[in-house]
Amino acid sequence: MSDVRPAEALLPDTDASPLDPPSLASYLDRIGVTGPVRPDLATLHRIVTGHTTSIPFEALDAYTGRTPDLTAGGLTAKLVRGSRGGWCFEHNGLLRRALDAVGFRTTGLAARVRWGEADTAPPTVRTHMALLVDLPEGTHVADAGFGGMVATGPLRLEHGTEQKTPLEPYRLLRGPAEVPGIDGAVTWTTQALVGDAWRTLYTFELSAAAQIDYEMSNFYLVAHPRSLFRANLIAARPGADRRTNLSNRTLAVHHLGGPSEQTDLDSPSAVRDALEERLGIDTSGVDGLDARLAGLF
């Protein structure tokens, strides 16, 4: 009897259906959103701000050699009930399922991360997930998963306008295609005002991505030997007036409109304490983390 199976049988679960009512209720409680929720702009602001300031960004699974579970059950178990965070595919996968459950119309995007890249650098791989949300007030970008520079509010899809968020101003720029080939193709660039300079975060096209696209990128960022997240401990959490970022053994706190503080942590236990106490991540169930933290010193 042949062991060959159809290709579909080898793929992960690609269902991206909305959260069920009990899971939505648990999610809203996790992010501190109370009262009625409706598919309107005010609710979108409440959900994006609540999500980004309540659920930390972290890539401990990739750092310890595990591929994150992007199913509804996996996302709610980890990010909602498990006092953990996640990376973009988890954050925005959960956000999309929640928004869809509320009644929003969403589209998934696959973006190219440009943070830290020169403007003239070649295109990067599409390894970031973001969302488009259609509203009567216009289309908005919602992104709860861009780590230390995540926008804590939705952004209107319009060219060049400086847009306030609870933290830094952001803007979206409309320009020619980043990868030439189709006449009239357009690339959008997401930027944040850091100090007195606009810094590019990522670029995207208005082309829908399927759940299987995210599953592939999710696996790629764990498996590739030069993956940033496989090689480095990265975690972040914004607050009402600050951003707290951890990169390996360096803890940085960036105050809105004020100075930044940077601390070089001096032991594996100090790094774990920062993850737990400063970033709100329950590390008790992360097998293999002790060995990775010891390797930082």
Automatic annotation (TrEMBL):
Going by the entry's taxonomy, the superkingdom of the source organism is recorded as Bacteria
Does this entry carry the keyword Transferase? yes
Sorted alphabetically, the keyword list is: Transferase
Q: Which GO terms describe its molecular function?
A: acetyltransferase activity
Key word Transferase present: yes
What the entry lists under Pfam families is as follows: Acetyltransf_2
Q: What is this protein called?
A: Arylamine N-acetyltransferase/N-hydroxyarylamine O-acetyltransferase
Instruction: List the top taxonomic levels of the source.
Output: Bacteria, Bacillati, Actinomycetota, Actinomycetes, Pseudonocardiales
